[in-house]
């Protein structure tokens, strides 16, 4: 998160993600020919940012697996099952940051531990700082966008179906997408 130094100092503080103005989504290839997009509609997150020492930034995000939404009820139920997210055993997907590294004037890498189905692996998500603004209610908001590709098999999500024409029904590679609006707490 880089901006002019004076702006960074103003951004120091604790922020909460605004779920009504943020999106945590994903993209998977389906049947080798198209993409299915979805999102998680129930999540919360907290960011502690120090403009004097951005490397000390700490981020935590908790996503409720049951909130998965691909605009298809039958597919969503399958994704909630033991074949995929196993939400009854693992109701939450979590991310806890371990490092924050500035990579450009408005870009940074956020590294942390992503836990899906009780399996944790480190991921590094490149983000772009989209800016800050005071909303009509007097809240300071900051915006970020980022994406990272993970292999779902690394997290024990291995279900698939072979296609008659070759290939499989669901790609192993999943793109996680983040469009974040965070509100500074007073």
TrEMBL record:
Pfam family, one: YceI
Domain Lipid/polyisoprenoid-binding YceI-like residue range list: 14-183
Origin: domain of life: Bacteria
Family: Belongs to the UPF0312 family.
Protein name: Polyisoprenoid-binding protein YceI
Organism: Micromonospora inyonensis
